[in-house]
Amino acid sequence: APRSLRLNSPEYGMQAFLWWKPEVATRDVQLVSGAGFGWIKQGVGWREVEPTKGQFIWVQLDEMMKWLGEQGLDMIVRLDHQPEWAGGGFPGNGPPTNLEDFGDFCFALASRYKGRIRAYEIWNEPNLAREWGGKRPDPAQYAALLKVAYRRIKEADPEAIVVSAGLTPTGTNDDSAMPDDVYLEGLYQAMGGSSDGYFDALGAHAPGFKAPPEMDPAEVAQSPEYGNQRFFCFRRVEDLRAIMVKHGDEDKQIFVLEFGWTSDTVNPAYAWHAVTEEQKADYLVRAYQYAKKNWSPWIGLMSLIYICDPAWTEENEQYWWAITYPGWPDFKPRPAYEAL
Description:
By secondary structure, the chain is of the alpha/beta class. The chain has 11 helices and 8 strands. The chain has an 8-stranded parallel sheet. Strand 4 (about 120), helix 5 (about 140-155) and strand 5 form a beta-alpha-beta unit. Helix 4 runs parallel beside helix 5 and helix 5 packs across helix 6 (about 180-190). It is globular. The two termini are about 30 Å apart.
């Protein structure tokens, strides 16, 4: 049935890892629906699906579509990680040499799963060099990639929602990274001031760092305890929204594609803003409540991180953001899953 490009405000999602272990994946799909959430976010590596130009491996995605259909869940997929034949600094994550190759992949994917994959995120954190082929982030180059993907997805499935890549909050501005607000402003300039023909919803990342979800970015910027920068908080999303409004995009929604709090006690780069598991639970619930009260109607999907990848251990920084533990066949939720 026809579905709107605009979501309820908000809708609720979790990122999961469904690719390699079907016995874990089928359980995790049920965990998402069992929590009352309606969306799963899943990364789809281009290199896994189209290892050779024009030859596709659909087995894993076909299985995922079956599991999600059984649970009545919507899916948003993140498209990136180009195959070796496409160039772009393989094995790193980078834009292909020929953008139309990516467009062909998007068209094939959206054709096969028309009406089943509801939304597509085009790339991930392109404001970081490590996600852009090791090259200096370039909003104009990303705009060109986004435009090709938008055109080809819409050719195959006009009702699919195309979402711009979630940008990582950072204050670094050099060859390794570009601040998310600076990058977004550059993206609007590259698009000629209008996102029409480029995306239906703006993607954003909103880690809470050490701050509670209600904390004002201006207050965070004045506090050494919380990092002394506006981007060190969940409400950084409001700064990105202001840029959208400035460029006349107030009618489009923001999709928060990653957000959460870490309880990391192992990795020094993250331990400074670690919270307890109980605080994580409280902050995630309050973040959804704050957004529903203060960001409606412009907030769309809010997809938290993560249902734990079964391969993660305590040495992986991602392990500490998760709301479950990675055990199999035993399952152990963290306080955040129960609270949500």
